Amino acid sequence: MLTVDFTRFPLAAGDRVLDLGCGAGRHAFECYRRGAQVVALDRNGEEIREVAKWFAAMKEAGEAPQGATATAMEGDALQLPFPDGSFDVVIVSEVMEHIPDDKGLLAEVVRVLRPGGRIAVTVPRYGPEKVCWALSDAYHEVEGGHIRIYKAGELLGRIREAGLKPYGTHHAHALHAPYWWLKCAFGVDNDKVLPVRAYHKLLVWDIMKKPAVTRVTEQLLNPVVGKSFVVYATKPRLPAADAGLSVAEAGLPAAETGPSAADANLPAVDAK
I need a surface site. Which of 14, 52, 151, 169 has the fewest CB within 10 A? Predict the structure, then answer.
């Protein structure tokens, strides 16, 4: 289940991608399948070990094209172990709501993103998230849990303040909002109660089968109750004389195929 829409966030084979706070690795796996040179980073060592196993399994199964690379590593989002301008693309999905110093996180992202590079940021949407907080303290009052709820304008403001230029937004996962409301109402750790189990089966069926009826329903509901808010932005290009590090200077392998998708000169659309 992807939150980033790759039709709005194009990725070229050979793009250097950082999936920051990768969790179980869903976006990193998709980027690897698309031929990118992927680094999946998270502070959770157990999850990183699982992501590394899946990368190895994907390579063994031939799921990634020739030239694609994938690395899973532990790391601190506020002290990224990469030189300036190391990546063409950064994905920060469902991370910022966990980080006290969200401005510091964005500053690090901007540092490691090359001029002209692109970023996708996703966070829980304000309305559905407020319902979850109202229904259950346990939903957010846990170690490493959600410490804030972003309004759309607030997140866009943070992104602009960091020096990035938003070019599009949308909402995602409307069908998942009621599931989390049910979990909060019956207990976030209570997966056995009938309404939660039944709805979970519906979501699994939807993810596996992708039936037209649920796909259309979710598209219609996303603007109203989409669980996630997604922002796409670019890092402005520097003058030619200050164009930043080369791939070799960044210490990363050169792309084997094609130009970066960031060179598509995406339009600047300030979506509300």
Answer: 151
